Amino acid sequence: MVDVSRRRFFTRKQIDTKQVRLPWVKDLQTFTDLCTRCGKCVNACETQIIVNGDGGYPSVDFTIDECTFCYKCAEICPEPIFNKSISDPWQAKASISETCLAHSNVECRSCGDSCEAMAITFKLRAGGVALPKLELGECNGCGACVSVCPTSSISVSNV
Fold first, then answer.
1. Pairing between strand 154-158 and 120-125?
2. For 82-105, what is each residue's pLDDT tens digit?
3. Which residues are registered as beta bridge partners of 82?
């Protein structure tokens, strides 16, 4: 059993509970207790976004690509750490920072073009370029908008 709260004592580093681990993971405590860090999910990921993260535990890196919610990571895992695929994959949502090119009056709509859920729209404004508007209710946290952003202004984290 790994007590993540005690890891801070030795590493002097805060455990980021907002970090996106894997879709359909039951909860962080179950994940850290039962994940053997075997790497099967890393190899099974069709978009190769699952990487070895903090402590060797798998996590998602949206700078590589998006999650297609294929469920292969859960299917190959020998441990009971995943919910059924009929449930929501996670509570992760995108957020757009002020470093977005549109805030500097530069036209860019790459995030909206890549958003299949159409959660990112653009609000027209007088005397400037349209600003991105994120509908959190529509965002599924797939991360398609992250890797295409030229200024790395978009991140996905658990809410």
1. unpaired
2. 999 999 999 999 999 999 999 999
3. 25
Alpha-carbon distance of 32 to 59, in angstroms, equals: 12
92-158: CATH topology is: Alpha-Beta Plaits (3.30.70)
115 is in an annotated binding site: no
Tell me whether residue 111 is annotated as binding. no
Binding residue per annotation — 108?
A: no
Determine if residue 100 is labeled as part of a ligand binding site: no
pTM: 0.85
Asked whether the beta carbons of 53 and 45 are under 8 A apart, the reply is no
Q: What is the DSSP letter of 19?
A: S
Q: Classify residue 55 by its DSSP letter.
A: G
149 is in an annotated binding site: yes
Q: Where are the domains of the chain?
A: 15-76, 92-158
Task: Choose the CATH number for 15-76 among 3.40.190.10, 3.90.1170.10, 3.30.70.20, 3.40.50.300.
Answer: 3.30.70.20
